[in-house]
Amino acid sequence: MRQLEPLLQAENVHVSVGKKAILKDIHLSFEKGKIYGLLGPNGAGKTTLLKVLLGVFPPTKGSIAFDHHDLYKSSNMSAIHSIGSIIEFPGFYDNLTLYENIELHLKYLKLDYSKEEIVKVLLDVGLHEHKDKLFSQTSLGMKQRLGIGRAIAHHPKLLLLDEPTNGLDPQGIKEVREMLLRIVKDREVTVIVSSHLLSEINLMADELIIMNNGEVVFESKSLKRTQEIFLYKFPVKHLDRALIDKISEHVLTSGKAYNEFISALNPEKLSKELKNYSVSYNEMEVKVLSLEDLYLKLIAKVKTNEFISA
Ligand SMILES: Nc1ncnc2c1ncn2[C@@H]1O[C@H](COP(=O)(O)OP(=O)(O)OP(=O)(O)O)[C@@H](O)[C@H]1O
């Protein structure tokens, strides 16, 4: 499969505040033009990771490469011009119109802009007919869309969105999703979007990243999203950890008696793969995981005990 060029890479990123480790050993790579969904329970570290990737929260250890430059070594302004974001609720001026709020942002960035460009942004986020309304007179859905409008107004290469559908009703969530998909297609921007809404992210994202306790516990890049995901449980005597590391990138638990891991290989294909390593076994359990099962399993909220014995 063709590997696209990464726009952004996090290498060995750690963040600690006092004695508390908030992000631990993050290695991530983001390719151009894709939407990445960042999932995880409250306190998993999603917002902190987005701030680190934005260039406003220097990691305690590790590095961020954005567009071939170290984000924390290059001049701040060049990154600000290439990244758009909504992290925590974006501040706007209540007594300015929607048009003026976008215009002020472009002035702040000291960018040349035309009236037509602002109109295009407002059209892209479905707010053109409301452009002369004061910000204070808009609904939450309109505010969220204006936030996205401001984030894309300066044509960034990267868009970081922290829970952009927070507080919206199902219709509003659908509108934001469709709008984001359109924007990515039109503007060829890479998007990293965090959410608690598993089903929503699944509809929007090309790739999934699941975080828990400051760690990345799952990346979908090795699994085709349309494929089924299998959870296997093998006695250690048949399949040890070293071999599992060779056949699966997603080891879940590694115990004294059993190892559990995720694979996109169905039991038949896995069996063939194991034959190549001369492994024979007479005991193994497998379960097909839904995305929700996988998520819950990864954040260790439930125990999966519905294995099918082989
Ligand atoms: N500046 C800070 N100082 C101390 N602790 C912090 C700081 N920022 C974040 N934390 C802690 O780090 C952990 C991760 O927080 P973060 O906001 O990144 O998680 P999150 O996944 O975005 O959560 P949520 O979904 O609730 O927004 C939390 O325990 C939080 O209390």
Automatic annotation (TrEMBL):
SMART domains (UniProt xref): AAA
Q: Which Pfam families match?
A: ABC_tran
Q: Which GO terms describe its molecular function?
A: ATP binding; ATP hydrolysis activity
Q: Record's InterPro entries?
A: AAA+_ATPase, ABC_transporter-like_ATP-bd, P-loop_NTPase
> What domain of life?
Bacteria
Q: Which residues form the signal peptide?
A: none
**Does ATP-binding count among this protein's keywords?**
yes
Arranged from A to Z, the UniProt key words for this protein are: ATP-binding, Nucleotide-binding, Transport
Question: What family is this protein classified in?
Answer: Belongs to the ABC transporter superfamily.
- Protein name per Swiss-Prot or TrEMBL: ABC transporter ATP-binding protein
User: Where is each ABC transporter domain found?
Assistant: 8-238
